[in-house]
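Retry 2 of 3 after timeout on previous attempt. Resubmitting structure tokens to design endpoint.
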């Protein structure tokens, strides 16, 4: 067979395939509405993932996009008193600063309003719900997400989402897998509407131990495996040391490991101080990162920035940065530029074209 005939047959096949594809696409659009299927590139603008800061610049860098992604499910888990609620309240405060409406579903009935206010949360604008059952909590969450008016919802915690059947039964009644089924159904219902409304939902979770595990990590989280699959980011938060002022313990040294990340490379760590009654120490976070990135010079116990000494000893420098916010913000901006999370506006400005010389 001649080469021309072969090429002609190939062209016909390609034309037939294209016609079949166009027919299928038009049928889908007629059945499910315009925009139900489209090409990913082309005329469709691919938007960057929007992020909300966590309140810790180190954790924002570890997450890869400058914070937690909007329109996604996030899981924060760890042992008791490790800083889970503190971290999420900082996220709420940052979302409110950006003009977002936030909701807190307090299934544990343990939210301290005064502590939340100290962390920068605007209580007058914060929506709070203390549901009686797990079904009620997730139904409230679903309704808020579908409204499209809420930018962040925190559910504290998955372990406290008690199924109605368990509450109506007697103490000691077996209810194996009921909570896992509840969470699995909730994830299936929530995922689509969370993406469409661009609302972030943060689930706080507790740690449980697997029985009879001889090798590997015996720790697991409550509520089954559904949340692990549906979460775009999973943060493991741990207390790794005590911060002392003399003999008195005034805070915790905390490490957060990004154990899952669908929007950036995972398994990065961030360490910061959580001071009792104050929350995450922004100054300590900026100082540690400044030293590690050679923005702040450290010689012995002395710290210098821009050729000028700013203090002796970490606690004194933290105090100095708290009082001199302009220097603190300058260091923070340099950290963000060096890590690529903030671009210099001058880099984006296009130079005007010079007129051609005659």
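Retry 2 succeeded. Sequence:
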């Amino acid at each position: 067979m001649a080469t021309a005939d072969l090429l002609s047959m190939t062209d016909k096949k390609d034309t037939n395939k294209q016609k079949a594809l166009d027919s299928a696409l038009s049928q889908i659009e007629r059945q499910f509405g315009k925009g139900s299927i489209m090409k990913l590139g082309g005329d469709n603008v691919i938007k960057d993932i929007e992020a909300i800061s966590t309140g810790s610049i180190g954790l924002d860098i570890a997450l890869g996009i400058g914070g937690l992604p909007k329109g996604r499910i996030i899981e924060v888990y760890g042992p008791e008193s490790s800083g889970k609620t503190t971290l999420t309240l900082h996220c709420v405060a940052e979302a409110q600063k950006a003009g977002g409406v936030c909701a807190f579903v307090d299934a544990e009935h343990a939210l301290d309003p005064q502590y939340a206010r100290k962390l920068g949360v605007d209580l007058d604008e914060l929506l709070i719900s203390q549901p009686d059952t797990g079904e009620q909590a997730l139904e409230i969450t679903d309704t808020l997400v579908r409204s499209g008016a809420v930018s962040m919802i925190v559910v504290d915690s998955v372990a406290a989402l008690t199924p109605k059947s368990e509450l109506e039964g007697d103490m000691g009644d077996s209810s194996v897998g009921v909570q896992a089924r509840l969470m699995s159904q909730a994830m299936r219902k929530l995922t689509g509407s969370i993406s469409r409304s661009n609302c972030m939902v943060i689930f706080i979770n507790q740690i449980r131990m697997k029985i009879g595990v001889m090798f590997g990590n015996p720790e697991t989280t409550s509520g089954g495996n559904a949340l692990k699959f549906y979460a775009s980011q999973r943060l493991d938060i741990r207390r790794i040391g005590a911060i002392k002022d003399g003999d008195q313990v005034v805070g915790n040294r905390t490490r957060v490991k990004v154990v899952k990340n669908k929007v950036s490379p995972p398994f990065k760590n961030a360490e910061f101080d959580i001071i009792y009654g104050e929350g995450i120490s922004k100054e300590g976070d900026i100082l540690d990162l400044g030293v590690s990135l050679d923005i702040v010079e450290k010689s012995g116990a002395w710290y210098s920035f821009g050729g000028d000494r700013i203090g002796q000893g970490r606690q004194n420098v933290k105090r100095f940065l708290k009082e001199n916010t302009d220097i603190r913000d300058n260091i923070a901006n340099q950290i963000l530029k060096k890590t690529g999370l903030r671009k210099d506006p001058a880099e984006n400005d296009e130079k005007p074209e010079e007129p051609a010389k005659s």
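Attempt log closed. The first helix runs from residue 3 to 32.
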